[in-house]
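forwarding from the other thread:

> can someone predict this with adenosine-5'-diphosphate?

sure thing
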Amino acid sequence: MILFILLLLLLLVVQGYSHSFLKYSLFFSSFIGLVIVIPFAYLLARFLTQPIYDLTQKAIQLVSSHSDQKMTLHSREELRMLSKAIDEIGIQLRNKIDETSKERDYLQAILKGMAEGVLVVDERGRILVANDSLHQLLSLPKNLANRTPLEIIRNAELEEAIRKVIREGKHVSFELNLPLPLGKTFEVNVVGILPAPEEKERGDEGIRGAIAVFHDITRLKELEVVRQDFVANVSHELRTPLTTIKGYTETLLDGALKEEVAPQFLQVIQKHADRLTKIVEDLLTLSKIESKEFYLKWERLPLSELIDDVLDFVKEAAEKKKISISQSIIPSSLEVTGDRSYLEQVFINLLDNAIKYTHEPGEISISAIEKGQTEIQVAIKDNGIGIPKEELSRIFERFYRVDKGRSQELGGTGLGLSIVKHIIQAHGGRVWADSKLGEDSTFYFTLPKQSVAISLPL
Ligand code: ADP
């Protein structure tokens, strides 16, 4: 249209030059032409800019609904307002994207940092996300997308729990036992993913999926079994001497007191009372070492001096069985850092066993050497009955005995080596044994030259 007007004007001008006599009449007719064309041109321009105007209105509405800033549109401001509105939308969009990626980073950091395993499934029960902990705990394959938990973890109980949560939207909690080779127990909590508030407003109440959190309680379960076994063992250990004491006391009260056997009965009662006392003492020592209040009185101890003191305790028992005890400390000035009374207890328990489980006449040797820059290794060797190879790893367990009858006969409680292990570990050392059945046994332990936890309270 503009082109048409320009052409018309051009025609008028050209005509004006060539026909000057018609100048005024032509000027008049041009003016009339313009009066007719301009409204048309305006209407056409309006028709063309209307979509831009509408677009601008929509953009302004969009911006206004996301910010408090209200905008009004005046005529002829369309393009300026449109560009302003687009800028505003751009800023808001960038902020939204930043916010969303920040939230995603937080979520990923939380999932990565969690010790618990997390599994997220969609509303069809297909896996969306499994965090690193879950991969490690269950040794999962890398690609899980779109697969069901049943395919991956092979547990019908878990699959059913997830389906139930998606169906009913209720929280489900259960204990999951995964058999060997995994051999793990988990406490699993499954919750539904609820629809967002906007979706709820639209009347969409359906569950979006489920999140299952796996808490590894294998160690707890093992400790529970250990505790139950321990209580059963203690009860059993206490019952035997108690039953004997009760039986002999009743017999004495029933008239045996006046008979010749009475002193023998009393000796049996005394022996079992001593045994009870020893068990209770050992149990108290163990519970003290395991208690939170347990601490060591660290001091520098010349090893030869410590061993000499201990030998005074066991000399009599060794002499009775004609067992010689030799010692070799290289260098003789070797010192350890530790708690004197607890380290004495370690030596006493090990020497006591060496004497108990060695036939007379026998030999015991104590040796100590430096191991590297930081450790001292002590070995106590006897030429006694020895320990079967397959039982060497178990003798440090509470109440574990190779030959229970023999141990009880010799006044053992089955707790001596357990106490040794705890004391050495508290000093930052290690303890182990080596043996040839029927020939010899050697018990080794290490101690740090310097205190490992010198800051412990004295
Ligand atoms: P106990 O009171 O029965 O001696 P310990 O915990 O001290 O309990 O030792 C556990 C078991 O290890 C003993 O019952 C015994 O079977 C075995 N044992 C320990 N020391 C020796 C040793 N020097 N020679 C042979 N067997 C040993």
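Residues 454-458 have pLDDT under 50 and may be disordered. thats all i got for now
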